[in-house]
Amino acid sequence: RCNNVLYLRGVPEDEEIEDAAED
């Protein structure tokens, strides 16, 4: 998912990223 890009950038401000990380 594109969320991975945000996570790599170090922007865990979106709750969606947290949800995706658990998925």
Fold topology:
Elements lengths: L2 H7 L5 H8 L1
Q: Helical residue percent?
A: 55-70%
Based on Cα principal axes, name the global outline.
Answer: flat
Count of individual beta strands: 0
Largest sheet: none
| Mean pLDDT across every amino acid position | 60
SSE run: HH
Oligomeric state of the chains in view? single chain
Point out poorly predicted stretches: none
Counting DSSP H or I runs of 4 or more residues, the number of helices is: 2
Structural class label? mainly alpha
Percent of sequence in beta strands: under 5%
Query: What Rg do the Cα atoms give?
Result: 7 Å
Give the N-to-C terminal Cα separation. 11 Å
Task: Describe the structure concisely for a colleague.
The protein is mostly helical. 65% of the residues lie in helices and 0% in strands.
Structure explained in plain terms:
With 23 residues, this protein is mainly α. The chain is built from two helices and no strands. It has helices at 3-9, 15-22. The longest helix has 8 residues, at 15-22. The protein is flat, with a radius of gyration of 7 Å.
